């Protein structure tokens, strides 16, 4: 955290729908009048920590925020969909200047849906391997997740952990059993919450993705989409749905 220059902060929401709900986030710098802030949204089962390597490289003159989505990291107590919760977060922090919105994986899809629903909030969006829009574009892995087979990304045993690591990494993962057990134990505490997030995403967000992606071309702001050529989770065919 120190090397990235961030401070950990908490934001109590506490409205009628989210009594006691709290966002946790990293912040680097402070808001600059008439200048956009960088907002980073992580992927499924990840957290704000994933962005520290990126934020470290951004000069101190820029304002950066990396949030823990509801059901992830240290954000707790939310009853709403991710998109609504993110909007509440921006409003509570009074981020009135248009923002640079960056999202990875599920966070990329949330960024796309947010930008098309609230275009006045953003002046640029960057989507890193966002979720594809519909069954015809999904990989076998995503198809299994949609059908409720969660252990592929949410392992519950050491065997499932090593299988997931092999599937989701291009490089061989070298982790001894002790470290693997410690890591797995830390993840199991969030297992039920992550399953709820996945189920909600497929029920509430997934059906609306195709429309949101199609509307990206109507945005006045810049849109940057980046994909890994050998991505095992998602395919790059979403590009067929978006006109330059």
UniProtKB/TrEMBL annotation:
Stretches of the chain forming a coiled coil according to its record: none
InterPro entries reported for this sequence: AB_hydrolase_1, AB_hydrolase_fold, AB_hydrolase_sf
Reactions this protein catalyses: 1-dodecanoylglycerol + H2O = dodecanoate + glycerol + H(+); Hydrolyzes glycerol monoesters of long-chain fatty acids
Enzyme Commission designation: 3.1.1.23
Membrane topology note: Single-pass type II membrane protein
Compartments in which it is found: Late endosome membrane; Lysosome membrane; Mitochondrion membrane
Gene3D superfamilies tied to this protein: alpha/beta hydrolase
Record SUPFAM superfamilies: alpha/beta-Hydrolases
Location, primary (coarse class): membrane
GO terms, biological process: acylglycerol catabolic process
Pfam families on file: Abhydrolase_1
One Gene Ontology CC term in the entry: late endosome membrane
Record domain AB hydrolase-1: where: 36-232
A Gene Ontology molecular function term of the record: monoacylglycerol lipase activity
Classification via PANTHER family: MONOACYLGLYCEROL LIPASE, MONOACYLGLYCEROL LIPASE ABHD6
Known function: Lipase that preferentially hydrolysis medium-chain saturated monoacylglycerols including 2-arachidonoylglycerol. Through 2-arachidonoylglycerol degradation may regulate endocannabinoid signaling pathways. Also has a lysophosphatidyl lipase activity with a preference for lysophosphatidylglycerol among other lysophospholipids. Also able to degrade bis(monoacylglycero)phosphate (BMP) and constitutes the major enzyme for BMP catabolism.
Protein name: acylglycerol lipase
Lineage, opening ranks: Eukaryota, Metazoa, Spiralia, Gnathifera, Rotifera
């Amino acid at each position: 955290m120190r090397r990235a220059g961030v401070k950990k902060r908490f934001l109590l929401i506490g409205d009628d729908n989210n009594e006691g709900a709290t966002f946790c986030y990293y912040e680097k710098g402070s808001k600059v009048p008439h200048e956009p802030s960088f907002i980073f949204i992580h992927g499924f089962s990840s957290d704000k920590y994933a962005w520290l390597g990126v934020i470290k490289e951004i000069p101190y003159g820029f304002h950066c925020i990396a949030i823990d989505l509801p059901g992830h990291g240290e954000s707790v107590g939310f009853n709403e969909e991710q998109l609504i919760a993110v909007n509440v977060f921006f409003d509570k922090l009074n981020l009135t200047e248009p923002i640079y919105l960056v999202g990875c994986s599920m966070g990329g899809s949330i960024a796309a849906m947010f930008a098309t629903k609230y275009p006045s909030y953003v002046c640029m969006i960057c989507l890193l391997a966002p979720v594809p829009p519909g069954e015809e574009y999904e990989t076998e892995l995503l198809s299994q997740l949609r059908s409720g087979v969660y252990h592929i990304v949410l392992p519950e045993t050491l065997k499932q952990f090593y299988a997931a690591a092999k599937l989701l990494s291009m490089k061989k993962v070298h982790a001894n059993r002790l470290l693997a057990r410690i890591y797995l134990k830390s993840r199991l505490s969030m297992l039920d919450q992550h399953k709820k997030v996945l189920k909600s995403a497929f029920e509430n967000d997934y059906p609306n993705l195709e429309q949101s992606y199609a509307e990206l071309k109507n945005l006045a702001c810049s849109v940057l989409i980046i994909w890994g050529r050998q991505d095992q989770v998602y395919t790059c065919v979403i590009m067929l749905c978006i006109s330059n």
